[in-house]
Design brief:
Layout: E1 2-5, E2 11-14, H1 33-36, H2 41-51, H3 57-66, H4 69-72, H5 77-80, E3 90-92, E4 99-104, E5 107-115, H6 117-122, H7 124-140, E6 145-155, H8 161-181, E7 185-192, E8 201-211, E9 226-231, H9 241-244, H10 265-280, E10 284-289, H11 294-306, E11 309-313, H12 326-331, E12 337-342, H13 347-356, E13 360-368, E14 372-377, E15 380-386, H14 387-391, H15 404-409, H16 425-434, H17 442-445, E16 456-458, E17 465-468, E18 475-481, H18 484-489, H19 491-507, E19 512-521, H20 528-548, E20 552-558, E21 562-563, E22 566-567, E23 571-580, E24 597-603, H21 615-621, H22 633-648, E25 654-657, H23 662-672, E26 680-684, H24 695-700, E27 705-711, H25 716-726, E28 730-737, E29 740-746, E30 749-755, H26 756-764, H27 766-770
Parallel strand pairs: 6-7, 11-14, 19-20, 26-29
Antiparallel strand pairs: 1-2, 3-4, 4-5, 5-8, 6-8, 9-12, 9-13, 10-12, 11-13, 14-15, 16-17, 17-18, 18-23, 19-23, 21-22, 24-27, 24-28, 25-27, 26-28, 29-30
Helix pairs in contact: 7-8, 7-10, 8-10, 10-13, 16-26, 19-20, 19-22, 22-25, 23-26
Length: 772
């Protein structure tokens, strides 16, 4: 008989139920069950030491899921604490279900990005679908109505059959679940590269709007309050989903499909409406999504935040399968469920609302002052664990070692890449526009409902997403950004560029960047070279966020994105939130009027180093190498300030930031997205070519802090003054034309001359042709 202690400190028998000897599903031996659950030997020893006894099987499962990398952040917690997380607009930072940012007039935005990478690798449709469902519930748990979704996706090259299968399944899962919810999918990004062939990345951002007084938190405060579960019934799906997401994938990856949850979007829609109504009554003291680790995590985390304990009776949990054991109930990751902490006198109110919406609802326990998570099965105690011990797993500081390829890249000379003949530049531009990483993502977003709810001002395919805030003149602007190829070559610089580009993407609309959420996708952190990548990226991200004054409000770390030792590119995705005070003053991409002037704000380096990690270098020359430069964060900050001021003074007709494909692609996209009659441009690069420039680097180099803008000729002086005031280089490089894009490198030297029809054809059909 194992022992526990009651509040008096006296030993109390803890009945070891049938769970103590139950074998883990699919495991032939139970001699070391903690290993099969993902715990290391030293972690099990620590549990025994801290608990003062050996845990029973149910308790061991609870520790295994909450001490998994997915839940405990064992290898990342120490570094994440170095990030800037506070600011004048931050109402809620990391540690809650989502970050919350003040947008004025008593309104706030809850937003967060999370990953569902491992599930998508083995069951792409349900993996993506339940990724949508989980992040929506995180926003709901803050008391906000979810208003939009963005998806940041990574796949292997579409020439691989498996990449095409994963691509199709993930996109279908996003549309199949998201479209049913009535929440528009308004933006995101898709990137294709060899390292994602076996490990796709599916990162989902959700945002919601709330009034300050409607803010809720995931806290089980108030001993005597009732613990309730509402939503879907509990089944055996997704058990140990979070431990599955905390290990590398191997040859047996397909056998892990039972670890992937199954979603029901119609149930989620009912849950959203019911929970918002419940919270509006004042009945709900605390609320938590049941995501990874299910009832175990939601109970333990809410109690830990409040410094309380919980006592629950699992026999009261609505179940859809017979004979479920305490272990299975506590670890199930069945979807569309929420944990509520409810005032005793309001239980009937909550039950009535749930029945009205056709949802399962049940009081399953009570908040206590014990600091323990106690689990009963028909009155028999089957688990009793200190909440603090469950939620404060070990924190590791693994060794970090610079990878050998970084040192090898230091010897790469961009000058070894020949500058193409002038006659080749037309073909190069069209080839880049057809690259799936640059080409139109319309084959993806045409499957999404991005106009539902009528709040979408700018949807996918036109830069950052713009969402109207009903009842005001405000608009929210969102962008997700990261170039994993750049991060791979220099993790610190790459993460800085991810923050800078996300901020610039938001600023070109006229929005002021406010804050970020992040999703940090890396390989196995127990390998010194991978942890070095992670450490460098986090430090670079922190530096950029401090300078640009965009605090980190939360996010997600996804490690072990490897298959048989082959990791993904290090991919720290940045989700940026911006605010436009007057949506009518927003700036959009695409030239507007023939005769308007075109200018470059910022700097194009035009040297060999700007080719390092570029789409041009890989697509045209088959090379991924070099050492990308770090951004000039002072210039980035000044450029953001200039864009926001210029938009506020209505000086700009269009704006397009430079990213993949550089200046040449930014100009071409401005023609492609232009209004009829303004789908061409006459450009002369003489004023922006630095000494010793390479023409291919000027046109197609990346890692530039720059934006292409168009404006009425009578606005030139005012725009030049704004740039001068903020210290931003300003160069008029041409004018908008009717239907042909022409670029001259100097007097009479034409290097590009293509029609808008040819550019649009290459850009619009890039992904479709890759799927043939």
């Amino acid at each position: 008989m194992l022992e526990d202690k009651d509040s008096s400190g006296k030993p109390e028998p803890l009945n070891v139920s049938r769970e103590a000897t139950k074998t883990f599903p699919g495991v032939k031996t139970a001699k070391t069950p903690w290993r099969e659950m993902g715990l290391k030997d030293q972690e099990y020893e620590l549990i025994v030491e801290k608990l003062g006894r050996e845990p029973n099987y149910t308790e061991l499962g609870m520790f295994a899921v909450l001490w998994s990398e997915h839940c405990a952040y064992k290898h990342s917690k120490a570094l994440l604490k170095t990030l800037p997380t506070s600011g004048p607009r931050v109402l809620v930072g990391p540690g809650e279900n989502a970050g919350v940012v003040d947008i004025g007039d008593g309104l706030a935005v809850a937003f967060k990005i999370e990953s569902h990478n491992h599930p998508c690798a083995v069951e792409p449709y349900q993996g993506a679908a339940t990724g949508i469902g989980g992040i929506v519930r995180d926003i709901l748990a803050m008391g906000a109505r979810p208003v939009c979704l963005l998806d940041s996706l990574r796949f292997g090259p579409l020439s691989h059959p498996r990449s095409r299968f994963l691509f199709s399944g993930v996109v279908s899962g996003i549309s199949g679940y998201g479209n049913c919810l009535g929440i528009p999918t308004v933006g995101g990004e898709v990137f294709f590269a060899e390292p994602y062939k076996n490990n796709p990345l599916c990162n989902v951002l959700c945002a919601g709007i709330l009034r300050h007084e409607d803010l809720h938190k995931g806290q089980a405060s108030g001993p005597g309050n009732i613990v309730m579960i509402v939503g879907h019934s509990t089944g055996r799906d997704g058990i140990h989903g979070c431990t599955f997401a905390s290990e590398e994938l191997g040859e047996d990856a397909e056998s892990r499909r039972p670890n992937v949850q199954v979603g029901d979007p119609f149930m989620e829609k009912l849950l959203i409406e019911a929970c918002l109504e419940m919270m509006a009554t004042g009945a709900v003291v605390g609320v938590q999504d049941m995501g990874a680790a299910g009832i175990t995590s939601s109970c333990a985390e809410t109690a830990a935040r409040a410094g309380t304990g919980l006592s629950i009776e699992i026999n009261k949990v609505p179940m859809r399968e017979k004979g479920m054991t305490p272990y299975e109930v506590m670890l199930s990751e069945s979807q569309e469920r929420m944990l509520l902490i409810v005032k005793p006198e309001k239980v009937e109110t909550v039950e009535s609302i749930a029945r009205k919406w056709g949802l399962n609802v049940a009081p399953i326990g009570v908040v206590t002052g014990s600091g323990l998570l106690e689990v009963f099965d028909n009155g028999e105690k089957v688990a009793s664990v200190p909440v603090k011990l469950l939620t404060e797993g070990p924190v590791y500081d693994p060794p970090a070692e610079e990878p050998a390829y970084i040192r090898e890249n230091a010897h790469f000379s961009p000058e070894s890449i020949p500058v193409p003949e002038t006659s080749w530049f037309n073909e190069i531009l069209l080839e880049l526009l057809a690259s799936p990483n640059i080409a139109s993502k319309e084959p993806v977003y045409r499957q999404y409902d991005y106009m539902v709810r009528t709040d979408t001002v700018e949807g996918p395919g036109r830069g950052a997403a713009v969402i109207r805030v009903k009842g005001t003149r405000k608009a929210l602007v969102f962008s997700t950004d990261c170039n994993g190829r750049i991060v791979y070559l220099d993790p610190r610089a790459g993460a800085m560029w991810a923050v800078a580009e996300a901020a610039r993407n938001v600023a070109v609309t006229g929005a002021q960047p406010l804050a970020i959420t992040n999703c940090l996708n890396f390989g196995n952190p127990e390998k010194p070279d991978i942890f070095w990548q992670f450490k460098e990226a986090v430090e670079g991200m922190g530096e950029a966020c401090r300078v640009l004054e965009t605090p980190v409000t939360g996010g997600n770390v996804s490690f072990y994105n490897e298959t048989e030792g082959e990791p993904v590119y290090p991919t720290p995705v940045i989700g940026m939130l911006g605010l436009i005070e007057d949506v009518e003053k927003r700036v959009t991409p695409g030239f507007k009027l023939k005769g308007d002037k075109i200018a470059l704000l910022g700097r194009v380096w035009g040297d060999g180093r700007s080719l390092c990690g570029s789409e041009y270098l890989e697509r045209i020359h088959g090379v991924v190498a070099g050492s990308p430069r770090q951004p000039d964060l002072g210039l980035e900050k000044a450029l953001i300030k200039t864009l926001v001021e210029a938009a506020g003074e209505r000086l700009l007709r269009s704006a397009q930031d430079l990213s993949e494909g550089g200046l040449g692609v930014a100009l071409a996209e401005s023609c492609i997205l232009a209004c009829p009659g303004a789908r061409g441009a006459k450009v002369n690069l003489q004023g922006v070519c630095p000494a010793g420039y390479r023409l291919d680097a000027v046109l197609f180099g990346e890692c530039n802090s720059a934006v292409v803008v168009s404006f009425s000729p009578d606005k030139e002086e005012a725009l030049r003054d704004v740039c001068a005031k903020n210290g931003v280089p300003f160069s008029v490089i041409g004018e908008v034309d009717g239907d042909v894009f022409t670029v001259e490198a100097g007097a009479g030297t034409t290097v590009i001359k293509v029609t808008s029809a040819d550019m649009t054809g290459a850009w619009a059909n890039g992904i479709s042709r890759s799927l043939i």
